[in-house]
Write a structure and sequence with these properties.
It is a single chain. The model is unreliable at 336-375 and 382-391 (pLDDT under 50). The protein is 35% helix and 14% strand. It has 402 residues and is α/β, with parallel strands linked by helices. The protein has a six-stranded parallel sheet with strand order 10-9-8-11-12-13, sandwiched between helices. A five-stranded parallel sheet has the order 7-6-4-3-14. Strands 1-2 form a two-stranded parallel ribbon. Residues 153-310 form the Glycosyl transferase family domain. Keywords: Glycosyltransferase, Transferase. Residues 392-402 have a biased composition (Polar residues). Residues 328-402 are annotated as: Disordered.
């Protein structure tokens, strides 16, 4: 496993990886793109050389994001050895750049949703498939207790950013009649990415509003479980397309109907009027009307928690994703790759002395990973590293991480 730096995702990976290495990866990020296109170009040949060496030593390389440019460039020279898992829906010129990199790579492409696949609109000649992200959830949906006699508890989880739409939700509260607004409690959980001023502005707006006593802002919490248990519904008012919608999926797993923007993968996750509600993005007045109906008529959505849990179990569990990706890896290991006999110890990668982290010795992989019978290496920008800074669907259990 190759990461650009140490981060909170590492403990989750260490349970599965033979070794976690840290190295410079040439990752496209919206922030600092100008520097990357100038001084950063000097580092590209070195990063590309490292990527080529990794491909040469592996039977299969799994690139867990489309923004690791050095590995997408290197993939073209190793036909059949690369899988690129696309988790982002970029906008404008960024989409053009990433689409070009993907086409250049000639890798097997996995999209995390039909929405992501549609956004990239690759030619039919490029092998591609959709595998939804696998999301961990509780053993069963929680009991729904809202009956209209107390305040509706609305939860919003996610990084504090314009894209996520915290301000849209507050605007929707402002638009509610006072008697309805008093029947809503809102909890916003998340932190801003290297932007403390945004956190201060949001906190000041809440403190100065008519809802100050009913709206709370909490920092990023690595364990969302208590927040889901507190909530009655979960709001995801995104302004730009989410590539899938992890929080909406988790909400359904917990039996907490999601109220989402009808955009990108969110409209693919939520069945409007059955497992939750979909409203137009960036339309606080429409969101406000939906909230008013939810508050006033809990009997109208009494069956949503059970239907949402069934949808989660059918489409979005970790086991479903594990089976799909495992089948793909076995398929590619059998039909492509280096042609080496993976059962021969000599065919497996040798240690990478220039990459190995000094903090930890190599580890043995778990039995299920060894059963894939191939030399398998994964490279990617850790979700907390923000990738390109575009709407990327994190696959780690750390929503709202700074």
């Amino acid at each position: 496993m190759v990461l650009p730096r140490v981060g909170p995702i590492v403990p989750f990976l260490e349970a599965f990886a033979t070794r976690v290495d840290y190295a410079h990866l040439w990752v496209l990020r919206r922030k600092g793109l100008g520097r990357l296109a100038t001084l950063g170009l000097l580092a590209l040949p070195i990063a590309l050389g490292r990527a080529v060496r990794r491909f040469a030593r592996a039977d299969l390389v799994y690139v867990n994001t489309a923004v690791v440019a050095d590995h997408l460039l290197a993939a073209r020279f190793f036909p059949g050895r690369a899988i690129v898992h696309v988790h982002e829906i970029p906008q404008g010129p960024a989409l053009t750049v990433l689409r070009g990199l993907i086409r250049w790579s000639r890798a097997e492409i996995v999209f995390n949703s039909q929405a992501t696949r549609s956004a990239f609109a690759l030619p039919a000649s490029i092998p591609a498939r959709v595998i939804h992200n696998g999301i961990a959830g509780p053993p069963a949906a929680l009991t729904q207790t809202y009956d209209g006699t107390r305040a509706l508890r609305v939860l919003m989880l996610g990084r504090l950013s314009r894209i996520k739409g915290q301000e849209v939700l507050l605007d929707a509260l402002d638009a509610l009649p006072a008697d309805i607004a008093r029947r809503i409690e809102l909890r916003i959980v998340g932190s801003a990415f290297e932007d403390p001023e945004r956190e201060r502005r949001l906190a000041a707006r809440i403190a100065g509003s008519a809802h100050a006593g009913r709206v709370t802002l909490r920092p990023f919490d690595p364990d969302p479980d208590p927040h889901y248990r507190w909530a009655d519904i979960v709001a995801v008012p995104s302004r730009l397309p989410e590539s899938l919608g992890r929080v909406a999926i988790e909400a359904m797993a917990y039996g907490r109907p999601p109220l989402v923007s009808a955009i990108g993968g969110l409209a693919e996750v939520v069945e409007h009027g059955r497992t939750g509600w979909c409203v137009p993005p960036d339309r606080p007045e429409v969101l406000s009307e939906a909230l008013a109906r939810i508050v006033a008529a809990p009997e109208a959505w009494r069956g949503f928690p059970e239907a949402g849990r069934r949808r989660y179990e059918a489409l979005f569990t970790e086991d479903a994703a594990r089976r799909a990706i495992g089948a793909l890896v076995r398929e590619r290991s059998g039909s492509g790759g280096s042609g080496r006999d993976a059962s021969d110890p000599a065919s497996h990668p040798r240690p990478h002395p220039e990459l190995r982290s000094e903090a930890e010795p190599p580890r043995r992989p778990p039995e299920d990973a060894r059963s894939l019978n191939s030399s398998f290496e994964a490279a990617g920008a850790a979700p907390q590293d923000e990738g390109a800074g575009w709407t990327r669907e994190s696959t780690s259990p750390m929503r709202g991480a700074p």
